[in-house]
From TrEMBL:
Function: Putative oxygen sensor; modulates the activity of FixJ, a transcriptional activator of nitrogen fixation fixK gene. FixL probably acts as a kinase that phosphorylates FixJ.
Protein name (Swiss-Prot/TrEMBL): Sensor protein FixL
Record organism: Alteromonas mediterranea (strain DSM 17117 / CIP 110805 / LMG 28347 / Deep ecotype)
Domain EAL span(s) in chain numbering: 24-278
Domain of life of the organism encoding this protein: Bacteria
């Protein structure tokens, strides 16, 4: 670092660097207010089976800031993860999801909902109890919730995460490994965890039919084989084309999620449905 610094110890920061840092500070401070003033909402993206039946949804957080406009979770979640804010956001998303779920149940929809759980959330000492008290509060059976964890979240504190997952699994909560194939978990880890599903990352799905050497397709094949070995099901995220869908179907992938079927939409969009819809 010393080599690059300017005279008098001043670091050289480019104009872009300043802008980025400003944006970072902006988001960090306004996020606190957003949590207080209920600016966060959720949208739901369907997950479909082989015949296009919607079997579940993934809840994705949205932030329409009064001052900043829409801010994507890709931008603010990593910032929230630096502090306790991610736990507050996690609880907000959980409450909104359970509320949607109880409305769906009333409307006669038989679905489960997946929510994203950050590494920092799952290692909180009160995580199990807060989850249990929320599902009790809304009267939702735990098996209707799929908790999505990334491989990175698993390996932060593998022993603690394992204990927590095993305890939650006893109550019926289920687990999906999100963005599978991009992290660092090993088969040895995965084997001892109560996992129901691997979620193939969009990164690999994107390249199906596009890469000339067929490497992406081979990786997808390998992930599907791994799922078989672990006796868990597979879902592919980011499915955008019928070619991708057909390839994945042909290789035995059980479920699919992506713009090909539907973008994430607010509850109101799905609310009129009286039975599980079929897409596209
Ligand atoms: P993720 O969990 O892997 O979610 C999938 C992302 O891909 C979502 O972006 C979704 O809108 C997008 N997507 C789905 N299908 C397609 C497709 O066919 N094409 C393309 N181009 N994109 C597709 P989103 O909503 O921006 O979320 C980004 C990430 O932010 C999520 O990745 C997740 O890691 C995180 N995130 C979102 N909501 C929450 C939350 O409530 N809690 C936590 N901890 N993280 C969240
Ligand atoms: Mg996810
Ligand atoms: Mg994902
Ligand atoms: Mg992803």
């Amino acid at each position: 670092r010393a080599k690059k610094s300017a005279p008098f110890g001043l670091c050289h920061i480019s104009e872009d660097g300043f802008k980025e840092f400003d944006r970072y500070l902006d988001i960090k401070s306004k996020l606190e207010q957003a949590i207080e003033s209920d600016e966060l909402s959720i949208v739901l993206q369907p997950q479909v089976t082989h015949d296009g039946t919607v079997s579940s949804f993934e809840a994705l957080v949205r932030w329409y800031s009064k001052e900043l406009g829409p801010v994507s979770p890709g931008e603010f979640i990593p910032i929230a993860e630096e502090s306790y804010a991610i736990c507050e956001i996690g609880d907000i998303v959980l409450r909104k999801t359970l509320n949607v779920m109880s409305n769906f149940v009333k409307a006669g929809l038989n679905t489960t909902i997946a929510i994203n759980i950050s590494a920092r959330q799952i290692v909180m000492p009160d995580f199990i109890n807060s989850l249990l008290s929320r599902v009790n509060q809304f009267g939702i059976p735990p098996h209707r919730l799929m908790l999505e964890l990334t491989e990175t979240a698993l390996v932060v504190d593998i022993e603690l995460v394992k204990e927590t997952m095993l305890e939650l699994a006893k109550f019926g909560f289920r687990f999906s490994i999100d963005d599978f194939g991009t992290g660092y978990s090993s088969l040895a880890y995965l084997k001892v965890l109560p996992i129901s599903e691997l979620k193939i990352d969009k990164y690999f799905v994107d390249d199906i039919g596009k890469d000339f050497d067929g490497k992406a397709a081979q990786i997808v094949d390998a992930i599907l084989e791994m799922a078989k070995a672990l006796n868990v099901t597979c879902i592919a995220e980011g499915v955008e084309t019928v070619e991708q869908l057909n390839y994945l179907k042909g290789k035995g992938c059980e479920r699919f999620q992506g713009y090909y079927f539907s973008r994430p939409e607010p509850e109101a969009y799905w609310a009129e449905l009286k039975q599980n819809p079929t897409l596209p």
